[in-house]
Amino acid sequence: MTAFPFKVSATDGKARTGVLSTPRGDIRTPAFMPVGTAGTVKALTVDQVAATGADIILGNTYHLMLRPTAERVRRLGGLHKFMRWEKPILTDSGGFQVMSLSKISKVTEEAVTFQSHLDGSRHALSPERSMEIQADLLGSDIVMQLDELVALPASDDRMADAMRRSARWGQRSKSAFGERDAQNLFGIQQGGTSEVLRRESAERMIETGFDGYAIGGLAVGEGHQAMCEVLDFAPGMLPVQRPRYLMGVGKPIDIVEAVYRGVDMFDCVLPTRSGRHGQAWTWDGPINLKNARFAEDESPLDPQSDVPASRDYSKAYLHHLVKSAEILGQVLLSWHNLAFFQALMAELRSAIAEGRMETFRREFAARQGPTGSDTSA
């Protein structure tokens, strides 16, 4: 198995910036991956997504295996061709959705069996089946091992059981994945908020050997402060020469704090989900366009942006679209939010390269204010 080259070009404290090079293109880190759950980043074309500066997007194994089915995607040329995205794609393993969305799921050592949330049909997802779907049928560039996720809070025994099963599933995932030149496999660290369990998980992952290492099991109910406390130690347990990916995170303030602690890659549905509900993320924190104070506000969301959604439409117009439940409002706010998240990543890369990460972090937190972690729409 050939790991994609990963070159760190600058560090500032624990924060680092660099490039992960794949056959389908370079991924500048720190990187934010827009989530294309069902073969689409909701409300946007792939050209709009690319224009925001995204180097890579995320596809969802669970949703695609149920509809249109991974076999159909393969017959139609793979996920890149199917959705007309030529840059890299990372697919998640499907485990998170199996646990959170399926009507009934049962975990055994062999696999997770579950009922589809769409039609109640029964399915089984094993590490081997997850590898087949992601690598062979969807054709993703970065494949994630199947893991068992535990919502927090949970007992130490429950977290330990899930972590060790995830480690065993990681070994099975790697065996099924085999040797590939144009695709990489990432392992996933588990262990909840326990430093002891996180260390054991990391040691087991390193023994198995992966091309990249994800930090899983966070942003599942533990809160911002607890997440930061885990990130004070978790990234440092993972190999310094490979990418570190914090799964499912998150809010802009979470991303900045995680980059400060050594994380390289992120994904989250937040930019598009909040955009569909009338919320715009800005350098001064999130704003709710439903609010009457924007009804006659002629200023755009970001006059400095290169993205039309941010630069060319007044808040008054966006307020009107949101209040009228017009589809264009969802499109423009989703587009703006993705552009903001990519602009944030570009600023983080510059701050690290110029040795001013601490200043950027402090000033960003001050500007975001107490609403910086508020996702209410």
Walk me through this protein's architecture.
The N and C termini lie far apart (44 Å). It is globular and about 60 Å long. 41% of the residues lie in helices and 19% in strands. The mean pLDDT is 95. With 377 residues, the chain is an alpha/beta fold. The chain has 15 helices and 16 strands. The longest helix has 27 residues, at 327-353. It has an eight-stranded parallel beta barrel with strand order 4-5-6-10-11-12-13-14, surrounded by five helices. A three-stranded antiparallel β-sheet has the order 1-2-3.
Q: Top keywords for this entry?
A:
single chain, 377 residues, alpha/beta, 16 strands, 19% strand
Topology:
Blueprint: E1 6-12, E2 15-22, E3 25-29, E4 31-36, H1 46-51, E5 57-59, H2 61-66, H3 70-75, H4 79-83, E6 89-91, H5 95-101, E7 105-107, E8 112-115, E9 122-125, H6 127-138, E10 142-144, H7 156-177, E11 184-189, H8 195-208, E12 212-215, H9 224-231, E13 244-246, H10 252-260, E14 265-268, H11 270-276, E15 279-282, E16 285-288, H12 308-311, H13 315-323, H14 327-353, H15 357-368
Parallel strand pairs: 4-5, 4-14, 5-6, 6-10, 10-11, 11-12, 12-13, 13-14
Antiparallel strand pairs: 1-2, 2-3, 7-8, 8-9, 15-16
Helix pairs in contact: 6-7, 7-8, 10-15, 11-14, 13-14
What portion of residues is helical? 40-55%
Distance linking N and C termini: 44 Å
How many H/I helical runs? Answer: 15
Number of strands: 16
Overall pLDDT score: 95
Write down the overall geometry.
globular
Widest sheet: strand ordering: 4-5-6-10-11-12-13-14
Low-confidence segments, given as residue ranges, are: none
- Main β sheet profile: 8 strands, parallel, barrel
Quote the beta fraction.
15-25%
Computed structural class = alpha/beta
